[in-house]
UniProtKB/TrEMBL annotation:
InterPro entries: Asp/Glu/hydantoin_racemase, Asp/Glu_race, Asp/Glu_racemase_AS_1, Asp/Glu_racemase_AS_2
Gene3D superfamilies cross-referenced by the UniProt entry: 3.40.50.1860
GO biological process entries: peptidoglycan biosynthetic process
Protein name: Glutamate racemase
Keyword Isomerase: yes
Species this chain originates from: Intrasporangium oryzae NRRL B-24470
GO MF annotations in UniProt: glutamate racemase activity
Length: 281
């Protein structure tokens, strides 16, 4: 897409609807790294962040509950006319992606997230996958391993409490959960897949725990590139900066939680010019 086409209105839009927007939905801070990755490629995009603090975490909930909750979060974001919706949660992608696509596409593309098992396995094993307890025990994760790493030694590790510690920005609890997961990870692992969208926010701490010889695989950049493809945009990192235009908390207009500022990706979101929200306590 050429520079003249960037920011042009789409058929049926009002003239003031020139800003392209993407909505991210998740129960909590898992969407932060994904929103940050998209802005690194297209800083001129407006972002709608739809979180669900009333019902998080999604892991212990039934598939039907997760599906309904993620549908509600996406519907609340539609008021802001997003060009696409990104489901920045592995659990929600498993249980709600098909329903979201059936409801929103083709008018609004829906992009899901999946642990980066395929690229990790391509580098050879052994490979470890850290995930929430619910995901670690799921048929979904086992299916991904069977599909993309059937010939590679793969170890699934439940990182108990790590997502919750990240959500609350409790560094003591984060380090304890990482230490426990690292102790459960077999020696000799060459690749580590982050199987929860929260985990990338503390990738540096995870890397320090597992050692420099272990390559870490996450998916925010891949999801960002797929999102741009779905809405017909090329990367343009030098564009004018917009950023977060709206934050929704279980469907209500709100503010980013204070814990977001504990992470570099969150700090970058808060620095975006379009961010109009004060931090909630």
């Amino acid at each position: 897409m050429n520079d003249d086409a960037r920011g042009s209105t789409r058929p049926g839009e009002s003239p003031d609807r020139a800003t392209r927007r993407v909505a991210f939905v998740d129960s909590g801070l898992g969407l932060v790294a994904y929103a940050d990755a998209l802005l690194s490629l297209r800083p001129d995009l407006g972002l709608v962040l739809s979180m669900d603090p009333d019902h998080m975490p999604y892991g212990p909930r039934t598939p039907d509950e997760v599906c309904e909750l993620i549908l509600r979060s996406a519907r609340s974001a539609l008021e802001h006319e997003p060009d696409a919706v990104v489901v920045a949660c592995n659990t929600a992608s498993v249980h709600g992606l098909a329903a979201l696509r059936a409801e929103l596409e083709p008018a609004v593309p829906v992009i899901g997230t999946v642990p980066a098992i395929r690229p990790a396995a391509a580098g050879g094993g052994p490979v470890a996958v850290w995930a929430t307890a619910a995901t670690a025990a799921s048929d979904y994760l086992r299916g991904l391993v069977d599909a993309f790493a059937v010939d590679v030694e793969t170890h699934v590790v439940a990182a108990h409490g790590l997502a919750e510690a990240i959500e609350s920005a409790d560094t003591t609890a984060v380090d304890a959960a990482i230490g426990e997961a690292a102790a459960l990870t077999p020696a000799g692992v060459r690749g580590l897949v982050l199987g929860c969208t929260h985990y990338g926010l503390v990738e540096d701490r995870i890397a320090g725990a597992v050692g420099a010889d272990v390559s870490i695989f996450d998916s925010p950049v891949a999801v960002a590139r797929q999102t741009l493809r779905r809405i017909g945009l090329d990367p343009h990192p030098e564009g004018p900066r917009r950023g977060v235009e709206a934050v929704l908390l279980s469907g209500r207009p709100g503010s980013l939680p204070a814990s977001v500022g504990a992470y570099p990706a969150g700090e970058r979101l808060l620095r975006e010019p379009a961010q109009r929200h004060t931090l909630s306590s």
